[in-house]
Amino acid sequence: MLNQLLVRLFTWFHQEEGQDLVEYALITAVIAIPIITGLVLAGLPGAFQTWVDGVAAAING
Questions:
Q1: 43 part of a folded domain
Q2: Cβ burial 1-11 (10 Å sphere, 16+ → b, else e)
Q3: Helix (H, G, I), strand (E, B) or coil at 1
Q4: Has residue 58 been placed in a domain?
Q5: Distances (CA, A) of 39 to 27, 30, 42, 43, 55
Q6: DSSP state of 61
Q7: Residue 4 has pLDDT above 90, yes or no
């Protein structure tokens, strides 16, 4: 009985299902975080707000 439990635990720890999804998520995070940080530090929110204000002014006439 103990041997069966150990075999099940061993196979459960060595399953590779879902591993690709985790790897892709980590790669995406490693790429996205510096890009988002760079955009925020470059002043994109201010530029975006200026654009939104311009669109709102054009709509309101």
A1: yes
A2: eeeeeeeeeee
A3: coil
A4: yes
A5: 19, 15, 5, 7, 21
A6: -
A7: no
| Tens digit of each residue's pLDDT (9 = 90 or more) over 13-59 | 776 666 777 888 999 999 999 998 888 888 777 888 899 899 999 99
- Euclidean distance between CA atoms 40 and 1, whole angstroms: 58
Q: Is residue 31 part of a domain?
A: yes
DSSP secondary structure string, 12-57?
A: HHT--TTHHHHHHHHHHHHHHHHHHHHHHHTTHHHHHHHHHHHHHH
d(CA 46, CA 30): 25
User: pTM of the entire structure?
Assistant: 0.46
Residue 18 lies in a domain: no
Domain count, the chain: 1
- Residues of the domain holding 42: 25-61
